[in-house]
Amino acid sequence: MRRADREVTPPEEIEEILRDCDDVCVAYQDAQGLTIVPVNFAYVADFTQRPHRLRLFAHSALEGRKIDAIRTAANALPVAFEMDCDARIHTGRTPCATTTEFRSLIGTGTASLVEDDEEKIAALRLLLEQCAGMPDAPLLPRQVSKVAVWRIDSTEFTAKRHPAPPIRCE
Length: 170
Fold this sequence. Notes:
alpha+beta; eight-stranded antiparallel beta sheet; 4 helices; globular
């Protein structure tokens, strides 16, 4: 059952979820089968267009399973992703009254390697700013050449919120 009552639609609230989540889990299929990997991320969102646009950036080693999968998919790997924050279990008087408070964002998109040097440096700066609070960190060319930067482009994502249950005085 789809819970439309939990859907978050105001752009500023979606942006809050993006800011408050520390990592994103990215799922994809490759020659070895299905897999999922959690990664730190930075984002750029455009809520002025319909559908909304979201671009997630991540970095990794130059080689490995996800990099191989992106290359094998001709730099256009279909992925699913999920991020959540503020998860807290609230136990009720009965098991059926137990619930979980959360905020989340799930979606699908296309993962690709960032090949352009200027875009790669801009993405790394965004990652340093959003993940590490280091907006002005210097990036040396040798450092940039030792990491892969990849992105996920999505227009298919949904944010949800399930607030804490009201406190009952009985």
